[in-house]
Amino acid sequence: MKLVEARALTKIFRRPDKEPGLRGSMKHLLRRRFTTMTAVDAIDLSIEPGEALAYVGPNGAGKSTTIKLLTGIVEPTGGEVRVGGIVPHRDRQANARQIGVLFGQRTQLWWDLPVRESLALLRDMYDISPTDYQRQLDRFDEVLDLGALLPVVTRKLSLGQRMRADLACALLHQPKIVYLDEPTIGLDIAVKDRVRDFLRQLRAEGTTIMLTTHDLADIEGTCERIVIIDDGKIIYDGGLAEVKDRYARERRVHLQLGTPITAADLAARFPAAAVTPGEAHGEFTISFDKSLLTAGAVLTGVAQLAEVVEVRIDEPAIEDVVRRVYAGELNITPGPADAAGAHPPSASPTSAHPAGTHAASARAAYAAGAADARAAGVPGAEDVTGAAGDVDPAEEASR
Ligand SMILES: Nc1ncnc2c1ncn2[C@@H]1O[C@H](COP(=O)(O)OP(=O)(O)OP(=O)(O)O)[C@@H](O)[C@H]1O
Ligand SMILES: [Mg+2]
């Protein structure tokens, strides 16, 4: 049985159209006008138990809203959703027991309490036995170095420390599925690596994961399936390996060389690559297609010509991959998983959504590098659909 099953799931937010000032408010009282915003547009999504899914797309695409719909924080405007047989927004409490959630942009820890107290509160809320609780704490200490953070008050935690504590909170009750909305946002390389290791471990243990990120390296080794959402619609659902093979082939080796050498010398050595000199003396970037050349071959070749002082190898971020998918290359064929019918709702991912059906302006802006499609949306917009479950309490509080 599928763990998550969403059919034509839709969320439309409404924002009051109000002129500024008291006059505007009075006018709005007399004549209420609203602008609507379709954040999630009739998506079909199913997730099998044990699956790890990357849910990606540009800013404002509808990723967080989907997660809020799946967690029951937000009530759908249309369509159906079930998680482990439960309708999340109808039975929030039962749903909370089977899910874990982390919103990287905000914390679920109690601000003025030490981390230990937040965890103890969650232990009581979820009825976790003392043995299970201790086992989980030991495990989090091992993989997230949580022990040192336990006595610290949340507001005194650095971002990386806070994220580690939040991960512990999301997983304390051993949920069936964990939704991670940008769990590495703003983290330094060392903490990112730690979180990524943790995700890989979760995956290996069979936890079902839905992961939202803007960084391809987060999903590496964790997710085999990638779902791309744009303007509220799913435009691709299939294998990650296929998307990467097709759109993330470029590698960049950044070098600091200690021997005088020119870009032309390097270019002559690597005809299949593009060589760009950096700003500082001896700095170069060599870009190549990984199917034509390897980073190892580049380094060996360069070492024969010059002394290599420093090296950095970049692979494209998921943002770049998604941008390429948008930039007119939408005819990506379904991955092997799709072809085998593993994800029937999206078996014909993009052919069902020809380019013209998307909000062309947002996509064009994105493809051009202006990734913040939120500008095309309704920043600071209020949801006034009236349902009590519609408004995210955290968002409410921050307003
Ligand atoms: N409570 C709300 N009221 C009104 N509009 C909203 C609300 N929450 C989100 N939106 C709008 O819905 C759209 C989708 O937002 P969402 O937060 O789901 O995007 P996202 O894909 O998570 O983006 P990001 O990558 O920036 O986190 C945006 O245009 C946003 O402005
Ligand atoms: Mg988001």
UniProtKB/TrEMBL annotation:
It comes from Sphaerisporangium rufum. GO terms for cellular component: plasma membrane. One of its GO terms (biological process) is response to antibiotic. Residues 24-256 form the ABC transporter domain. PROSITE patterns: ABC_TRANSPORTER_1 (PS00211), ABC_TRANSPORTER_2 (PS50893). Keywords: Antibiotic resistance, ATP-binding, Nucleotide-binding, Transport. It is a peripheral membrane protein. Its main location: membrane. It is found in: Cell membrane. This is ABC transporter ATP-binding protein. GO terms for molecular function: ATP binding; ATP hydrolysis activity. Pfam families: ABC_tran. The keyword Transferase does not apply. Residues 336-363, 377-399 are annotated as: Disordered. SUPFAM superfamilies: P-loop containing nucleoside triphosphate hydrolases.
